[in-house]
Amino acid sequence: MIREESIKVKEYSFVASKVRDYAQLMKPNLSFMVVFSSVIGYLMAPGIPFVWTKVLLLFAGGVLVTTGANIINQILERFSDRLMKRTMVRPLPEERMTVTEAWILCILSAAGGFWILATYFNLGAAFLSLFSLLLYGFAYTPMKKIHPIATFIGAIPGALPPLIGWVAATGTLFGEGSLGGWAIFLIQFFWQFPHFWAIAWVGFEDYERAGIRMLPSKEGKTSFTGLQCIFYSLTMIPLAMLPQQLGMVGMTGTWVCIAAGLMYCLASFVFYVRNDKTSAKRLMYSSFIYLPTVLLALLIDKI
Questions:
Q1: Which residues, other chains included, contact 5 with Cβ-Cβ below 8 Å and sequence gap of 6+?
Q2: Nearest-CA neighbor of 212 among 223, 221, 224, 200?
Q3: For residue 250, which of 262, 241, 259 has the smallest C-alpha distance?
Q4: Which residues make beta-bridge pairs with 302?
Q5: pLDDT at 84
Q6: What pLDDT shows up at residue 177?
Q7: What is the model's pLDDT at position 296?
Q8: What is residue 76's three-state secondary structure?
């Protein structure tokens, strides 16, 4: 009897450990923001009502494809992750999971997400999500050790989710019917630069140990990073007016987006002036506030 209970405890512990490892591979916080913006892009499309089944299917498809991309990232960076405090406890660096197991999970997850998007929405959204996965996994990930242009490359798949959602709703990637999706894409694209650089500044020593180059200056933690953040955050103000010009939202949502852009600019300016860890963290937190605020403002004030 005691032996049976011991076996059950070990089995439960094994399953619980595997669930935790799979959850770490998913990067749930990142995945949620990616899928959230995809759902917003879908609901922002003209004539699309809020239907729970469609939203949940889009959410599931997005989570699965994003999980596939995150697993590729962690497979390719497993040796670098051993050198960083933030990532050294992940399942691959600690060898709690084999690379083969990770690849199997990656392929199953990505294929499942592709199938959901292709079956319940359209092939355009499915192939756009696949393109995003390949760009993130096999271009952005290795480039992080080669050149700071990785930030630009990574910003493309990082901004594609709302466009994927738009295409899932409309089936249109190019032409007049796609302009709204591209407008949200541009907002999310430019938002990422201060966001990435603030994170890279805060974790500079960790990234340096792993040989990852994320800051825009070869000299590292200089005020040039803050100056670049100001430039990119300034673009958020005219971009905030674009959805209104396209007839997507009213003035209330537009003013909220402009105010959020001004907050982002102010945080970037303070970071440039002080050039310290505290101001970098404030810019990072501002970026976390900016994107959901803007996306929700666009959706709530949708025309």
A1: none
A2: 200
A3: 241
A4: 249
A5: 87
A6: 86
A7: 95
A8: helix
The pTM is what? 0.90
The residue type found at 260 is A
Tokens of 149: 């242009």
**DSSP assignment of 223-279:** HHHHHHHHHHHHTHHHHHHHHHHTTSB-HHHHHHHHHHHHHHHHHHHHHHHH-SHHH
Tell me how crowded residue 9 is: count the other CB atoms within 10 A of its CB: 10
Reported residue count of the chain is: 303
**What does the pLDDT look like over 222-258, one tens digit per residue?**
889 999 999 999 999 999 999 999 999 999 999 999 9
| Distance between CA atoms of residues 218 and 211, nearest Å | 12
What tokens does 84 get?
A: 């960083």
Rounded alpha-carbon distances, angstroms, from residue 246 to 168, 175, 254, 281: 20, 13, 12, 34
Taking the CB of residue 5, how many other CB atoms lie within 10 A of it?
A: 9
Work out whether the CA dihedral 276, 282, 285, 286 comes out positive or negative.
Answer: negative
